[in-house]
Design a protein that fits this description.
Blueprint: H1 5-22, E1 64-73, E2 83-87, E3 113-117, E4 123-129, E5 144-151, E6 154-163, H2 179-184, E7 186-187, E8 190-191, E9 200-203, E10 206-208
Parallel strand pairs: 1-9, 1-10, 6-7
Antiparallel strand pairs: 1-4, 2-3, 2-5, 5-6, 8-9
Length: 209
């Protein structure tokens, strides 16, 4: 076979771009409801450390969880400057919301909401507590963390993070997910080596379409 200059250049160009064109796409993070308890009044302190409010020296009650990950697109390209929000219940099972009427009181030392902007590698991180379950019967929710991502290049995404070491079988929202969606929305926390207070770490990567 005779290769002309045009054929060689065309072949070389295809080889150069083929990984981006033909690589298997990453599974997009499934969308889920924001729920009724996105904070109706954001706290003044809304950094990525939820267990310390303002300059308090008293931490929130609960098992410390270091949540981190990367935001990327389906080709694996990292997305910088994306805004990542999380919100969740405290150790008493209460949200930072005026219409959360559960009888327990809010932990005033728990921030309840956090915000972080991804770095050049699309990375984010939070220090929070491992959430507890709440509700009962059809209204029971297993431990989960709400998450929202806003990026200039993509539509906003709202979802929830579940824990693979929990029994999620009777959570109404979990039961509606496919197996692939469940895997995409689950983390398996690991113990922080050397921690004296039983801290855990979990990695949750977010794939935007």
């Amino acid at each position: 076979m005779i290769y002309t200059r045009r054929k060689i250049l065309t072949s070389t160009a295809l080889m150069a771009i083929s990984p981006a064109l033909f690589a298997e796409e990453l599974f997009k993070t499934p969308r889920m409801t924001a729920g009724p308890f996105y904070p109706d009044k954001l706290p003044l302190d809304k950094d990525n450390d939820l267990i310390i409010v303002n300059d308090s020296i008293t931490p929130a009650v609960g098992q410390v969880l270091h949540l981190s990950g990367q935001v990327m697109d389906t080709k694996g390209r990292k997305i910088k400057d994306a805004l990542v929000e999380i919100w969740q219940v405290d150790a008493n099972g209460r949200y930072l919301h005026s219409r959360d009427y559960r009888e327990t009181e809010n932990d005033k030392h728990f921030q309840g909401y956090g915000l972080f902007q991804t770095d050049a590698n699309g990375a984010y991180k939070f220090r929070t507590i491992r959430p507890v379950e709440y509700g009962s019967g059809f209204a029971r929710r297993t431990p989960h963390i709400h998450i929202a991502i806003t990026s200039r290049q993509h539509k906003p995404l709202v979802s929830q993070i579940f824990f693979a070491d929990e029994d999620n079988s009777d959570d109404g929202l979990w039961s509606r997910l496919s197996e692939a969606q469940r895997r995409a929305l689950s983390v398996l926390p690991q113990a922080v080596e050397g921690s004296q207070i039983n801290e855990q770490t979990a990695v949750f990567n977010i794939i935007l379409g």
